[in-house]
C-alpha cells in the first residue's frame, strides 16, 4: 500500500487568531514495504505529517492517497476507520494510552474496535505479547504494574494486534535505556523484514536511521527539504551540520579521517563498513 | 494560553487585581439597587466608560454574553409574557404582553448584560496569575480561623500551571485511542459513554504520576509546608486603586439618589 | 580531598515491594568537586540511590546504613539542611516545573527557605542569566521546549547555591539539542563553581565528562572506575545500561578483522590520531 | 496539615477538573455531558468532604474568574460547588463503593444542588423566574442522573483507580 502526498498543506486552527501553518507543499511517496525514516528538528512538522498517514488529520490543502483511499480537505470524517486499521500508529510515549485492567484486554482493545471477535482478539493479544518479547505471564497483570519499558511494549503490541500493513512509530525508543532501545529497534526491523510491514519511523537518532532505514525524509519548517537513501543524505556531512541535524557517528568519524587524508569509496554508515574500508589503508 | 486575558497597557490593566476582583463582586451587589430607567441608564453609562478605559474592543465583551444567550432570552421572554400591569398590548389566555412586561424584560436584559460585561472586564484585563495572587491575598485573613491559605494557594497555582499540560495530554490520548479505532462523540449514548473510558483512565493515571513526581521535586527544593515561606510575586496597591474604590462608592451614592 | 557524599552499608526496600531490596549494601563516596556518573540498566537502583541521598524516600524497617552529606549525617532532623546542600534535576521536564512561569519556578526553592524578596529577585535574575533563559523569565512552561524546561530546573538549582547537583536522568527525555545545551551548562557549573556533580544516566556523552563511573546492578555496586576503564568493557556496557562509545565500537570492529589495535580504550580523538599515525607508517 | 504529595495530587486533580470542563466529549439531544463531576467525585473519595469541597470552591473561582466560564462570579454557585464536593466526600471517603451509595449521592447532588440551589441562584442573580426554569432543569437532570450514576460506579470500582487510591 503506497501512501502519496500531493501538494499537501496543513494549518492548525484555521480562521482563529491562533492560526499557524504546520505543513506546506508536501509532495512525497512512501512506498509499500519500505522502511522510511523522517528526521528534522522538534517543530519541523514531522508529527503533523504522520498524522495525515492514518487520517487523524485531513490536509487543509492538497490530497493524501492512502492505498486506494483519497483524502482531501473535503473528505467526510466518517468511514475513516478502515484506514486506521491498515495504518497503525505508535505515538511518542505510547504507554500513556494504556487503560485496561489487564494487559490482554488492553492489547485486544484495538482489534475489537475494528470488529474482530473478543476470542480472536485475545488470541492475538497472546501472539503479540510474544512478538514484542514479553512473557505470557504478563497477560493477566495490570499494565500499570509493569516497568516503563514493558509498558511501552504492551502499547506497541496493542497497535500490532490490529494487524496493520503500515506501522508508524514516533520516537519509539525515547527515554529508554540502551538495551531497551536496541530491543525495540530490533523488533521493528524484524517486523519489517519478516512480516513485510511498511515502517515509518520518526527519530532523532541518526544511528537508527543509518542502521535500519532505506529511505530518509528530512523536514524543516513544515516542508520536506530532502529525500534520499541514508547514504545520499548522510554523505554531505557539512550540509547536515549546517542544518543542525546531527550526523551519524560513523559519518562524523569518517569525516574527521577524510580530513586527515583517508579515502573512502562511499560514505560509510556503520562501524563495520568503516572498519572494512579502513582495513586496506592500515598496516 | 489560559483564560481570556488580552494583554494591554490601559489604566484598567494596571489596576491591582485585588481591586478589580473586589469591585466586580461589589458591582453584582449594587446592581440590585437599580430599579428604574434612570438607574439602569446610569449603570450602563458607567460600564461603558469602564469598557472604554480598557481600550479593548466592545466585541470581546459581547462575546462574553454568548454562552448565556439562551438563558437570557428565556428569562426575558418569561418576564415579558407573564408579568402584567400597565397597558396591555396583546393577550391570549394567561399570556399577556403589557407595557410593564416589556419594560421589565428590558431591565432584566440590561441586568444580564451589565453583570456579564463587568466580569468579562475582569478576565480580559487581568492575567490569570495575577488573579490567583489576588485570590490568595484576599483569603489571607482566613488564616485566623486556621484556614490553610498557603496550601490552597499552592494548589491553585499548580492547577493553573498544569491545565495546559493536561489539555495537551488529553488531545494526545484522544488521538492515540482514535488510532486504535475509538470514535469520540459518535453513536448512541452507551457507545459514547464507553468511548470515554480509554480517555479518562489514562488521564487520571497520568495526573497521579505527575503529581507524585511534582511532590518529590517540591520536597527536594525544600518545600515543608506554608510556614515561613516568603513570596516572590507581590502585588502593589496604588493611588489609582484607591480612586477606583472611590468611583464605585460614588456610583453607589448616585444610585441611591436616583432610586 | 574532602568527601562531600559518603554512603556506607546502605540497604533499602520500597514499602510496596518488600520481597526485593532496591539497594543492597551500597558503599561509595564522592569528593568535593568531583563528577561521578552512576550507570546501570533500568531497575538497577540508580534513581533510588540518588533519591536516598537527598532523603526523598520513606524509610521503613530493615532499611539501614548511613548517608553523610558535607559531614552531616542524614536523619529526619537534618534532612532539610541536607536538601539545601543538594540541587536535584529529575527526568521529566514537565513534572518538576512547580511555578506558573519561569521566574516563579526558579524562585520556588528560595521561597521555601523564606528568603527576603530583594535577594530572591537578584538570585533569580543571576540564575536565569547563567542558563541563558533570562528573556524567557515571564514565559509559561507550556511554551518552552523540554531542554528549556530542564535549563529552568538547573536555574532553580543554581539560585539555591548548593554544593552538589544531582542529575537523575535529567537528559533522557530531551532531543539531541536540548541534551547538548543542558550538559554544556552543567559542565560550566562544575568548572566555574567547583560544584560536585552526581549524574544518573544512560547517556555516553554525559559519562564522558565524569571523573568516575559507578556501575549498579540489581541494587548492588558492581564496579567503579575512570571512564577509560569502564568504556573498555565494550559490548558489556549495554547490559550496564550504557551505550558503547563510538571509538570503542570501531576498535572492536577492527580487532575482529585482525588489525592490531591499542590494548586500552581510546577516546575519539585518540582513535583518529592512532589511525592517522598508523596510516602514515604504511 | 497536608503533605506536599496530597497538595500536588489535589492540584493535579483540580487541573484535570478544569480540563474535563473544556472537553464536552459527548452530548445527547441538546444536553451537554461533561465529566467535571467525576473529578469532584475522585477528590471526595480520596480526600474526604472538607478537601473535596474546598477544591471544588477553588475550581469554581478559577472557572468563573480566571477562565471566564459562563457568566459571572456569584457566591451562590460557589456554595453549590462546595456542597457537591462535600456530598461526594461524605458518601465515599473511606467507604465501600455500592450501588445505593452512588445512587443516593448522585440524587442528592442532583436534587439539592443542581435542581433546587442552582435554580435559586439564577433567580436571585438574574430574576429568572424560579418555577419557569425548574421544569427544564428537572428534565435535564433526569437525563443526566443515570449517566452520572453509571460513570461514578464504574470509576469507583475500576481496578486501576483502586490501585491509585491505594498509593495515596
UniProtKB/TrEMBL annotation, chain C:
It is found in: Cell membrane. The keyword Translocase applies. InterPro entries: AAA+_ATPase (IPR003593), ABC_transporter-like_ATP-bd (IPR003439), ABC_transporter-like_CS (IPR017871), ABC_transpr_CbiO/EcfA_su (IPR015856), ECF_ABC_transporter_ATP-bd (IPR050095), EcfA_1 (IPR030947), P-loop_NTPase (IPR027417). It is a peripheral membrane protein. Keywords: ATP-binding, Cell membrane, Membrane, Nucleotide-binding, Translocase, Transport. One of its GO terms (cellular component) is ATP-binding cassette (ABC) transporter complex. It comes from the Bacteria. GO terms for molecular function: ATP binding; ATP hydrolysis activity; ATPase-coupled transmembrane transporter activity. CDD domains: ABC_cobalt_CbiO_domain1. PROSITE patterns: ABC_TRANSPORTER_1, ABC_TRANSPORTER_2. Pfam families: ABC_tran (PF00005). Its main location: membrane. Belongs to the ABC transporter superfamily. This is Energy-coupling factor transporter ATPase. It comes from Loigolactobacillus backii.
Amino acid at each position: 500500500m503506497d501512501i502519496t502526498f500531493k501538494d499537501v498543506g496543513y494549518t492548525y486552527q484555521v480562521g482563529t487568531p491562533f492560526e499557524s501553518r504546520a505543513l506546506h507543499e508536501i509532495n512525497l511517496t512512501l512506498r509499500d514495504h519500505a522502511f522510511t525514516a523522517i528526521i528534522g528538528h522538534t517543530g519541523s512538522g514531522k508529527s503533523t505529517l504522520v498524522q495525515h498517514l492514518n487520517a487523524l488529520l485531513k490536509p487543509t490543502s492538497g490530497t493524501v492517497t492512502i492505498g486506494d483511499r483519497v483524502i482531501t480537505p473535503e473528505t467526510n470524517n466518517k468511514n475513516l476507520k478502515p484506514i486506521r486499521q491498515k495504518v497503525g500508529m505508535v505515538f511518542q510515549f505510547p504507554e500513556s494510552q494504556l487503560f485496561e485492567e489487564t494487559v490482554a484486554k488492553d492489547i485486544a482493545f484495538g482489534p475489537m474496535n475494528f470488529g474482530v471477535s473478543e476470542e480472536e482478539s485475545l488470541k492475538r493479544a497472546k501472539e503479540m505479547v510474544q512478538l514484542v518479547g514479553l512473557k505470557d505471564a504478563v497477560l493477566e497483570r495490570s499494565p500499570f504494574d509493569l516497568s516503563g519499558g514493558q509498558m511501552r511494549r504492551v502499547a506497541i503490541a496493542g497497535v500490532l494486534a490490529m494487524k496493520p500493513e503500515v506501522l508508524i512509530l514516533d520516537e519509539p525508543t525515547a527515554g529508554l535505556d540502551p538495551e531497551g532501545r536496541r530491543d525495540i529497534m530490533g523488533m521493528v526491523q524484524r517486523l519489517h523484514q519478516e512480516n513485510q510491514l511498511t515502517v515509518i519511523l520518526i527519530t532523532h537518532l541518526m544511528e537508527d536511521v543509518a542502521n535500519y532505514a532505506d529511505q530518509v525524509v528530512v523536514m524543516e519548517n513544515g516542508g520536506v527539504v530532502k529525500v534520499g537513501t541514508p547514504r545520499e543524505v548522510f554523505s554531505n556531512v557539512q550540509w547536515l551540520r549546517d542544518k543542525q541535524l546531527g550526523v551519524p557517528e560513523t559519518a562524523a568519524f569518517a569525516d574527521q579521517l577524510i580530513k586527515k587524508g583517508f579515502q573512502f569509496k562511499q560514505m560509510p554508515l556503520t562501524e563495520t563498513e568503516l572498519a572494512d574500508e579502513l582495513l586496506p589503508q592500515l598496516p | 494560553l489560559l483564560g481570556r486575558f488580552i494583554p494591554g497597557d490601559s489604566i484598567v490593566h494596571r489596576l491591582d487585581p485585588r481591586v478589580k476582583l473586589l469591585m466586580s463582586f461589589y458591582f453584582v451587589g449594587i446592581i440590585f439597587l437599580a430599579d428604574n430607567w434612570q438607574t439602569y441608564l446610569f449603570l450602563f453609562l458607567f460600564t461603558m466608560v469602564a469598557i472604554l478605559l480598557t481600550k479593548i474592543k466592545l466585541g470581546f465583551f459581547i462575546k462574553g454574553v454568548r454562552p448565556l444567550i439562551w438563558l437570557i432570552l428565556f428569562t426575558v421572554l418569561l418576564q415579558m409574557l407573564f408579568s402584567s400591569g400597565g397597558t396591555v398590548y396583546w393577550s391570549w389566555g394567561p399570556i399577556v404582553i403589557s407595557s410593564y412586561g416589556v419594560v421589565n424584560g428590558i431591565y432584566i436584559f440590561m441586568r444580564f448584560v451589565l453583570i456579564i460585561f463587568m466580569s468579562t472586564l475582569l478576565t480580559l484585563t487581568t492575567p490569570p496569575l495575577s488573579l490567583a495572587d489576588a485570590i490568595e491575598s484576599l483569603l489571607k485573613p482566613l488564616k485566623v480561623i486556621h484556614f490553610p491559605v498557603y496550601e490552597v494557594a499552592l494548589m491553585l497555582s499548580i492547577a493553573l500551571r498544569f491545565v495546559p499540560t493536561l489539555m495537551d495530554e488529553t488531545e494526545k490520548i484522544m488521538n492515540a485511542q482514535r488510532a486504535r479505532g475509538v470514535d469520540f462523540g459518535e453513536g448512541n449514548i452507551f457507545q459514547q459513554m464507553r468511548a470515554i473510558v480509554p480517555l479518562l483512565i489514562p488521564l487520571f493515571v497520568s495526573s497521579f504520576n505527575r503529581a507524585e513526581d511534582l511532590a518529590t521535586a517540591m520536597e527536594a527544593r525544600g518545600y515543608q509546608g506554608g510556614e515561613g515561606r516568603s513570596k516572590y510575586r507581590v502585588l502593589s496597591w496604588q493611588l489609582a486603586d484607591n480612586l477606583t474604590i472611590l468611583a464605585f462608592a460614588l456610583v453607589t451614592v448616585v444610585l441611591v439618589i436616583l432610586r | 580531598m574532602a568527601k562531600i557524599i559518603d554512603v556506607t552499608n546502605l540497604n533499602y526496600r520500597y514499602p510496596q515491594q518488600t520481597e526485593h531490596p532496591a539497594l543492597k549494601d551500597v558503599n561509595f563516596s564522592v569528593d568535593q568537586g568531583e563528577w561521578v556518573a552512576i550507570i546501570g540498566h533500568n531497575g538497577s537502583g540508580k534513581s533510588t540511590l540518588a533519591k536516598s541521598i537527598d532523603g526523598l524516600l520513606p524509610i521503613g524497617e530493615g532499611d539501614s546504613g548511613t548517608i553523610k552529606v558535607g559531614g552531616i549525617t542524614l536523619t529526619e532532623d537534618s534532612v532539610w539542611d541536607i536538601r539545601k546542600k543538594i540541587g536535584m534535576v529529575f527526568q521529566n521536564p514537565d513534572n518538576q516545573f512547580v511555578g506558573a512561569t519561569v521566574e516563579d519556578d526558579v524562585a520556588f526553592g528560595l521561597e521555601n527557605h523564606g528568603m527576603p524578596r530583594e535577594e530572591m529577585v537578584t538570585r533569580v535574575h543571576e540564575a536565569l542569566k547563567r542558563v541563558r533563559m533570562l528573556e524567557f523569565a515571564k514565559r509559561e512552561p507550556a511554551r518552552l521546549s523540554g531542554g528549556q524546561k530542564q535549563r529552568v530546573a538547573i536555574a532553580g538549582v543554581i539560585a539555591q547555591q548548593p554544593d552538589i547537583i544531582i542529575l537523575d536522568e535529567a537528559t533522557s527525555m530531551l532531543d539531541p539539542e536540548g541534551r547538548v545545551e543542558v550538559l554544556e551548562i552543567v559542565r560550566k557549573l562544575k568548572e566555574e563553581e567547583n560544584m560536585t556533580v552526581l549524574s544518573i544516566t544512560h547517556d555516553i556523552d554525559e559519562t564522558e565528562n565524569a571523573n568516575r563511573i559507578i556501575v549498579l546492578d540489581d541494587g548492588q555496586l558492581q564496579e567503579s572506575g575512570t571512564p577509560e576503564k569502564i568504556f573498555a568493557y565494550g559490548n558489556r556496557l549495554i547490559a550496564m545500561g550504557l551505550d558503547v562509545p563510538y571509538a570503542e565500537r570501531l576498535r572492536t570492529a577492527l580487532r575482529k578483522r585482525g588489525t592490531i589495535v591499542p590494548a586500552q580504550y581510546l577516546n575519539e580523538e585518540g582513535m583518529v590520531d592512532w589511525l592517522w599515525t598508523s596510516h602514515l607508517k604504511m | 496539615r497536608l503533605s506536599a504529595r496530597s497538595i500536588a495530587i489535589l492540584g493535579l486533580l483540580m487541573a484535570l477538573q478544569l480540563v474535563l470542563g473544556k472537553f464536552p466529549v459527548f452530548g445527547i439531544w441538546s444536553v451537554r455531558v461533561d465529566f467535571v463531576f467525576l473529578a469532584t467525585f475522585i477528590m471526595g473519595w480520596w480526600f474526604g468532604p472538607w478537601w473535596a469541597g474546598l477544591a471544588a470552591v477553588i475550581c469554581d473561582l478559577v472557572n468563573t474568574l480566571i477562565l471566564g466560564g459562563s457568566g459571572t462570579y456569584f457566591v451562590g454557585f460557589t456554595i453549590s460547588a462546595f456542597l457537591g464536593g462535600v456530598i461526594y466526600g461524605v458518601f465515599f471517603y473511606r467507604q465501600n463503593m455500592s450501588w445505593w451509595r452512588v445512587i443516593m449521592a448522585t440524587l442528592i447532588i442532583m436534587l439539592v444542588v443542581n435542581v433546587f440551589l442552582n435554580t435559586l441562584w439564577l433567580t436571585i442573580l438574574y430574576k429568572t423566574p424560579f418555577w419557569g426554569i425548574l421544569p427544564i432543569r428537572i428534565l435535564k437532570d433526569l437525563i443526566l442522573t443515570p449517566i452520572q450514576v453509571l460513570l461514578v460506579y464504574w470509576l469507583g470500582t475500576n481496578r486501576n483507580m483502586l490501585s491509585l487510591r491505594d498509593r495515596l
